[in-house]
Every structure is written in C-alpha cells, then in structure tokens.
Amino acid sequence: YEGWGIFGLILLVITFYIILDINTKYLIISSILYIPLGIAWSIYRWKRHCSSVMEDYDIDVKLAGCELDSYQKGRFIDRLKASNNITKIVNWVIVWPFSLLDNLIGDIIDFVTQMIKKHLIGIYNKISAGNIEKING
Q1: Residue 41 reports pLDDT greater than 90
Q2: Number of domains in the chain
Q3: Among 43, 46, 71, 92, which residue has the least CB neighbours within 10 Å?
C-alpha cells in the first residue's frame, strides 16, 4: 500500500519536472517544503486517529457496562501503537495533499450529516408523524 504512495509521488515529480518544465531549483525547494508539511500533517492525522480509537474504546466500555478484558483492551492498544500503523503514517507523509483533501471533504460531509441529524430530524419526524398515526390507528 505505501508503495503506491511512493510511486504516485515519483510520477508527480516526473510530471512537474518533464511535462510542465519546472526547473530543478524550484523542484528542490518544493521538495524541501513538501516533506516537513507531510510530517506536520501526519502528526495531526495521528492525533485524530488516536482520538477516534479512544472514542471507539469509550463506546465499547459503555456498551459492555464494565471494564473490558485484556484481549479487548489489547485490540485498542494495538491500534494506538505507531509501530502497527507505519504504512498509514508513511502515506500521510507522502501523499498528504490528497489526505488533506479527503479529510476536508469528509469533514464537510460529516458536518452536513450532523446538521441533518440534530436540526432537521424534527422536521422529518413531523412530516411522518401523521402517517405513523394512521398506521397505529
């Protein structure tokens, strides 16, 4: 999986260098900026990943109604270990512009979904209430 990210990055560099005739100096400066931005993005994404894992953990604890056993805890701990997520982290560094775009689009979709759930669901419930009343007699 991380091989595709590296392959895509190489194709991007070749495209900018050969096809778009970007000079070498600009390509080197861009590369020097690209990697630190990717590292910063991967740190941000890792924090979000860890928060998501902890949300899942809290949900599982709440559903179980008690403390999880060592196997169940181990599943969450494994998801929190960076060494088990190297491919994910490397991809965030290498293809960060695409990951950023994906996250922005995902966040917009999540915002719209939450807005519908929180604010518009009452309208939809009122519309269907008459029909439910007919069914219930």
Answers
A1: yes
A2: 2
A3: 71
